[in-house]
Specification:
The protein has 392 residues and is α/β, with parallel strands linked by helices. The chain is built from 12 helices and 18 strands. The strands form 3 sheets. The chain has an 8-stranded mixed β-sheet. It has an 8-stranded mixed β-sheet with strand order 3-5-4-12-13-14-11-15. Helix 1 runs parallel beside helix 8 and helix 2 packs parallel to helix 8. The longest helix has 31 residues. The structure holds flavin-adenine dinucleotide (FAD).
Length: 392
């Protein structure tokens, strides 16, 4: 199998990168370890920026047909009434098994090839990444060479680790447990988030039958559940849901899924012959729901950089540098935004104050959502009229 570019991972970042490269005439192969459709632990909320990116990819109609429109998010802080933020731009709930399969199909339709195998190492020619080593379904280890490798293999990326780009994440680790459930009743096309004490309980209505339910807790809390995770999750949900929501009367559809620690950091997102995109390039706390947006917009920037590097190999370093600078600038602000939002959510008096102020200053809430969804640069959320209104 010959490819100009090998993309490791067929999630949103990998499929979108492959689609754009294939459309530009590049011979691209996606190496994906899972057979699609597959479950992926995710809140399954696509913000307005993600939908804009899907439109630019030409995949919006296909994805919209698989999801359900969302009208807003209801935040329920501890000891305070809920506050509802309306989405003034379209947003969607869409199960990841459907979304990811549709995006990979779109990449294939554009001309990308898919190989089902697990990448376990990178190949180096001196300092340059020259391909990957894969373990095929029948257990054989095979080398795949290419002019360029894209690490789109998510948090914990093998490509990042093997190229020496990964670093120990310094943030406090949280863990997520959840699944799809029936019996959660009407959510009126709203995400509901019950927050408190470094934990949250989130519900996202996928359709009239299914609700995506996630409980996210700090590591020490999860450790105490080892004897009975279902009971632990149920107890945390009942506590956070404060008598309004719990798992009582709900039935799980399919497996319970879990993931953690929710952290993955890298020192750099590029190396000679390779770049990282999506979660592989650094993971943002999922509370603010920016991951898929960032995976898709990152793919657009990554594809531009790779095309420039393939066109003019002598200018590869410059093209990769431009990608790295875009990523560093955008993500640094998104990380700061996540840190402030997480602080507001984790400290109950701050959460109560922010909720009250969101009620009084709905424009600040709308501006915050716009920044999270990429309608405006993330740094705009730090203007006094936005975060200042919530914190002062
Ligand atoms: C609990 C939780 C809730 C979240 N909620 C939301 C939300 O509501 N909205 C939102 O926008 N984002 C959310 N996110 C973030 C979002 O899921 C990610 O940002 C998004 O999936 C990133 O896409 P990706 O393509 O970079 O990586 P992934 O989606 O992780 O895809 C990586 C792919 O690489 C494959 N792979 C991995 N290793 C290998 C290997 N060695 N060889 C071959 N293939 C490999 C995997 O099988 C996978 O298909 C959430 C994340 C978590 C953990």
């Amino acid at each position: 199998m010959n490819a100009d570019v090998l993309v490791v991972g067929g999630g949103p970042a990998g499929s979108a990168t492959a689609l754009l490269l294939a459309r530009a005439g590049v011979a691209v192969t996606v190496v994906e370890r899972a057979r699609f459709p597959r479950r992926k632990v995710c809140g399954e909320y696509l913000n307005a920026g993600a939908l804009d990116a899907l439109e630019r990819l030409g995949a919006l109609d296909a994805v919209r047909a698989l999801g359900a429109p969302l009208r807003g998010v209801r935040l329920v802080p501890p000891g305070a009434p809920p506050v509802t933020l309306a989405f003034d731009r379209p947003a969607l709930a869409c199960a990841r098994e459907a979304l990811d399969a549709a995006l990979l199909d779109a990449a294939v339709a554009a001309g990308a090839q898919v190989e089902h195998a697990r990448v376990d190492d990178v190949l180096l020619d001196g300092e340059r990444c020259a391909g990957v080593r894969v373990r095929t379904d029948d257990g054989a280890l095979v080398e795949r060479r290419a002019r360029f490798v894209v690490g789109a293999d998510g948090a914990g990326s093998v490509v990042a680790r093997k190229l020496g780009l990964a670093q120990v994440a310094r943030r406090r680790a949280r863990y997520a447990v959840g699944g799809h459930y029936a019996g959660f009743g009407a959510l009126d096309a709203h995400i509901e988030m019950y927050v408190g004490g470094g934990a949250y309980f989130a519900l996202n209505p996928l359709d009239t039958e299914r609700t995506n339910v996630m409980v996210v807790v700090p590591r020490d809390r999860l450790a105490r559940w080892s004897a009975d995770v279902d009971a632990g999750v149920g107890g945390a949900a009942a506590e956070l849901g404060r008598g309004v929501r719990s798992f009582d009367g709900a039935t799980r559809l399919g497996p319970r899924v879990s993931v953690g620690p929710l952290a993955h950091d890298v020192r750099r997102v590029v190396a000679p012959g390779a770049l990282l995109v999506g979660d592989a390039a650094g993971f943002l706390d999922p509370f603010t729901g920016q991951g898929i947006f960032l995976a898709l917009t990152g793919a657009e920037h990554a594809a531009d950089a790779i095309l420039a590097a393939l066109r003019e190999p002598a200018r590869e370093a410059m093209a990769l540098d431009a990608y790295a600078r875009w990523r560093a600038g955008d993500v640094a602000w998104r990380r700061r935004l996540c840190a402030v939002v997480t602080l507001l959510v984790d400290v109950p008096p701050l959460a109560r104050r922010a909720a009250a102020r969101l009620g009084r200053f709905p424009d600040a809430g709308a501006a915050l959502l716009d920044a999270l969804a990429g309608a405006v640069p993330p740094q705009r959320a730090f203007r006094p009229a936005v975060l200042g209104s919530l914190l002062a």
